[in-house]
């Protein structure tokens, strides 16, 4: 992979002091009793209306999440994971995938200013404008320039950040442009941030967007995300920061996209103690290894852990390392019976699912 230079980051972590370190002589006061205002009683009509609003919001959220889930494609030779978690019932984050033909896949991630219903409406408009323009242009830079003008027309009081790339799925080549969005990460043995700048959409109608190119080698991963990841707050008001994200991923560079998503969501929930003050969205793309045996072994490591997977592979996998996908599919039932005996039904089921998904790309 040949990424752009990595920028230097300044730490955004505030210094925290302890009350025990303060000088003596502080007068302690007994806390005042909290007065809890009585909850007003709603009339039957108000209760009915509230129930209708709640039902409509839930329907809107289901529709929004459905649009995002429907967008995620299966790309032969690649692993893909995408998730979007709104901070409220409705969110302003978005991602999209477009088949541009000839093995070229368009991938976009964005963040609309604001939260809730107004942000969700702007998100829907931004996605519609993007889809229209992306089908007309074959380059990320000109596409974002046209989307920018469309956003200015259709969302005059909103701002949108957006990162858009065109991926040659056969060659692993990327062309990218950025409109003020969080920089993506390339993951191999290390984590490298791609510094590619541009004004957010909806700011200046004359904005042009610079393009950059890169190559994704087998086994390497591209990580796109919104700023809700970095700005997740703990109970002290301290944000998660890029430094923590980088350290977490560098300690787990072997993980596949789905495992990275699960790990990071658990990390953010622990950091924020279950609260969420901003939408969180991730799109993670990994190019599969060219050697089938090595790829399947890495899948097993992801599910079982490295040591257990390595022992299982050495003791029970008797296939030639150069065996094709059809031979592996024929051998899977016996292997999974052994896996169920050793690791239990749940892990064996997950291993079966992930191995079969991988094998589909090598048939």
TrEMBL record:
Q: Where is the PPM-type phosphatase domain?
A: 75-287
Give one GO molecular function term.
phosphatase activity
- Entries under InterPro entries matching the protein: Bact_Sigma-Reg (IPR052016), PPM-type-like_dom_sf (IPR036457), PPM-type_phosphatase-like_dom (IPR001932)
Sorted alphabetically, which SMART domains does this protein's record hold? PP2C_SIG
SUPFAM superfamilies for the chain: PP2C-like
Keyword list (alphabetical) reads:
Hydrolase
**Protein name (database record):** Stage II sporulation protein E
């Amino acid at each position: 992979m040949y990424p752009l230079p990595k920028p230097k980051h300044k730490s955004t972590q505030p210094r925290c002091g302890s009350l025990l370190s303060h000088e003596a002589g502080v007068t302690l006061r007994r806390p005042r009793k909290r007065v809890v205002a009585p909850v007003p009683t709603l009339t039957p009509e108000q209760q009915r209306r509230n129930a209708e609003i709640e039902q409509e919001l839930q329907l809107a959220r289901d529709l929004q999440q459905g649009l995002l889930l429907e967008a995620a494609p299966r790309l032969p030779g690649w692993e893909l994971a995408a998730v979007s978690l709104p901070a409220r019932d409705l969110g302003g984050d978005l991602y999209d995938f477009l088949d541009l033909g000839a093995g070229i896949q368009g991938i976009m991630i964005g963040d609309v200013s604001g939260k809730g219903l107004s942000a969700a409406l702007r998100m829907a408009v931004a996605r519609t404008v993007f889809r229209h323009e992306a089908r007309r242009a074959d380059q990320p830079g000109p596409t974002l320039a046209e989307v920018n003008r469309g956003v200015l027309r259709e969302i005059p009081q909103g701002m949108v950040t957006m990162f858009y790339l065109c991926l040659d799925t056969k060659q692993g080549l990327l062309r990218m442009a950025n409109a003020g969005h969080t920089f993506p990460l390339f993951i191999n043995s290390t984590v490298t941030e791609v510094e590619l700048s541009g004004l957010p959409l909806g700011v200046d109608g004359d904005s042009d967007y610079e393009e950059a190119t890169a190559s994704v080698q087998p086994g390497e991963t591209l990580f796109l995300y919104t700023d809700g990841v970095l700005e997740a707050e703990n109970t002290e008001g301290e944000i998660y920061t890029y430094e923590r994200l980088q350290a977490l991923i560098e300690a787990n560079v072997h993980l596949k996209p789905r495992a990275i998503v699960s790990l990071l969501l658990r990390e953010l929930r622990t950091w924020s103690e279950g609260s969420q003050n901003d939408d969180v969205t991730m799109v993670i793309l990994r190019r599969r290894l060219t050697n089938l045996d090595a790829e399947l072994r890495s899948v097993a490591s992801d599910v079982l852990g490295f040591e257990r997977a390595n022992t299982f592979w050495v003791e029970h996998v008797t296939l030639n390392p150069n065996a094709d996908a059809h031979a592996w599919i024929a051998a899977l039932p016996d292997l999974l019976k052994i896996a169920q005996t050793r690791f239990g039904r749940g892990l064996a089921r997950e291993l079966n699912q992930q191995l079969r998904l991988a094998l589909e790309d090598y048939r």
